[in-house]
Predict the 3D structure of the following.
Amino acid sequence: MKHISLRLVVVIFSLFFAVGVFAMTLGDVGRVCLFSAISGTITLDGKPVANARLVRTGDRDGPKVDETVTDANGHFAFPAMYERTLTKFLPQEFVASQQIIVHHKDQQYEMWSAVKRQPEENVESRGKLLVVKCELNAEQNLIMVNGSPIHSLCSWDVEPDPKTDWEKEGFFDN
């Protein structure tokens, strides 16, 4: 009898554990990352920009928008932006547009404009946390990361894709 009771307790405990793991897995069904968590510092002429309003948009099947404001040191942070979709399971390419606009003293600066081509978080920085330093008076740079173009006023710890022959020949130059 003790043997059966112990077995029953082990089976019930195992079922509760399995249900918990299964529930966590169900929570991620169809979940795609439109925009990875991003944080950093914004400067203007090398000085921190306080109280700037940042508007972030991620768009795969209709825009999702959120906002934040820089602190006294020019620091900002956005959490990852997710969306649920059944199309994650269809044989099609994932494409989400990304944009961050900085509003400061009646001026607008396009800080970030990109196309995200993978649904996982942190592909914009090859798996690392996305921590940026952005100078509003900088010239916007174009880099390719994981085959996705990113136009930005920012720098961050990422190794860009090797340049292709057409990039070396100045195909994108004005």
Notes: Confidence is low (pLDDT under 50) at residues 15-24. Residues 6 and 12 are 10 Å apart (CA to CA). The first strand starts at residue 31 and ends at 35. The two ends are 83 Å apart (CA to CA).
